[in-house]
Each structure stands twice: as structure tokens, then as C-alpha cells.
Amino acid sequence: EVFQNTLVDYFNNK
Amino acid sequence: MLELRLVQGSLLKKVLDAMRELVNDANFDCSATGFSLQAMDSSHVALVALLLRSEGFEHYRCDRNLSMGMNLNNMSKMLRCAGNDDIITIKADDGTDSVTFMFESPNQDKIADFEMKLMDIDSEHLGIPDAEYQAIVRMPSSEFARICKDLSSIGDTVVISVTKEGVKFSTAGDIGTANIVCRQNKTVDKPEEATIIEMQEPVSLTFALRYLNSFTKATPLSDTVTISLSSELPVVVEYKIAEMGYIRYYLAPKIEE
To answer: Searching chain B, which residue's CA lies closest to the CA of residue A7?
Structure first.
């Protein structure tokens, strides 16, 4: 299945 | 007290047109640096970041940092009342709940002011770190817009792959598939028509075309667009606004599980 992380996942949690 | 006078008022209209499909409400931040905005779409997979530097305004007065919440569709309704050659001044007083847009015709024979109510908007401000990108593609903005529009009639997503051969845009849908390859092309008459690829290593990422098509609403702001790609990072699609700043869009890639 294809899904998309949110930008919050990228910029605040990574 | 805030007073920002922009001789090229049509630029503000174009900026609004470039954002309002993606974002409904946003906080405009004014500081000594300039007039800026950061806002995410409702699903939080796309983000727009705008900067209009203070030096780009004919007059820029911002006594203290101010954040003004505005509905972009309402703002656009007001700015549409300005002529394309009009000078636009944005004014607000400290502690007020409204902003005034003043439109002056070039020969000063018509002056209009439109006051718009401000809104309280809870928005999350992301700290976007500087990143090294595996590939950076610069190409004519009209060409990028054409590719996104054409591919969205075939499929919903696009795979953007950068190799030393060039940049490939691929899609697939019920009716078939499509691939468009743009090769590096520096030998053109005008620099804005060049396609330039800076690649550290090959990269291939999948994105929703719906969002990329929204980003191309910024095409009237710049002849060129820069697309920065890295595995596992949101793509950055940047349109430079001459002598003023930029509008940047970030989009999370689709991930195959």
C-alpha cells in the first residue's frame, strides 16, 4: 500500500 | 504600526494566486526581515513558505513583529480589486483586528482602501532544516507546469527520477503510461530556457500530481523553477521572486511499503 508521511513527521520528529 | 508599500502591486496578486488553492487560512508574519508566511495544507503533506524581503518594498515600516491571520480567498477577493499597474500598500495598527490594503493608480488619480478583518489562526510553524540534496534540477517553470498538467490526465502520481542522462517524469493510469525525459541543456539562447541538473547521486521519488499542479500556480512569478530531491525527504519546488525573495513548496513523497 502507498502512503504519505506528513511534513510534521519529517521536520519535527526526524 | 505596519506600512508596506509595494510598487509592483500585481506581484502580491500573483503570490495569492500561487497559494490559495493549497491553503485556506494563514498567518502572515511581518518582521524587520520581511513579509513571510509558512502554512501547510489541511492534510499536512504539503507546505508553502513565502518570503518577500523588506528591501524589495519601496517603503517598509514594521515597528515590531506582527502576525496577521488572513483568509486567503478573502484577501484575494480584495486584491482582485486592484489594477495590475496599481501600487499596493498594506497597513495595520498595533493591536488592531483588521488590515487595510490601499491601491493607488500609477498617476495617483485613483486611490482606494479596502479594510479586511483579521482572524485568529492556530498554525504549527515547522523548523525546516537546511539539507543537502542528492539532485537539484533547474528548468523553465512553464515546462514543468506543462509536464505536470499533461501527466495528470494519465495518472494520479508521478515518479521523478534523476540520473546523469536527465530527469524523467513517469506516470501510469487506467488508459496507459507516460514518460517524459528532459535532458540537461545549457546551450540555449536565454539562460531561463536552460535545463540544468546538479546530481550527487541518482534519486527516484513518487509524488501526488494533484499537489504539484497546485504548486505550478506560481509559474507567473518566475521563468524558472528549482526542484530539489533527496531520498526520504520532502521535495522542494522553489520559484524565486526577482529582487524580493521566493515561494517554496514542500511535498512529502509517497512511500511504497
So the answer is: B45
SS3 string, chain B, reads: CEEEEECCCHHHHHHHHHHCCCCCEEEEEECCCEEEEEEECCCCCEEEEEEEEHHHCCEEEECCCEEEEEEHHHHHHHHCCCCCCCEEEEEECCCCCEEEEEEECCCCCCEEEEEEECECCCCCCCCCCCCCCCEEEEEEHHHHHHHHHHHHCCCCEEEEEEECCEEEEEEEECCEEEEEEECCECCCCCHHHCEEEEECCCEEEEEEHHHHHHHHHHHHHCCEEEEEECCCCCEEEEEEECCCEEEEEEECCEEEC
- State whether A2 and B257 contact (CB < 8 Å): yes
Q: pLDDT digit string (tens) for B185-207? A: 988 889 899 999 999 999 999 99
**ipTM value for the complex:** 0.82
Q: What percent of chain B has pLDDT over 90?
A: 90
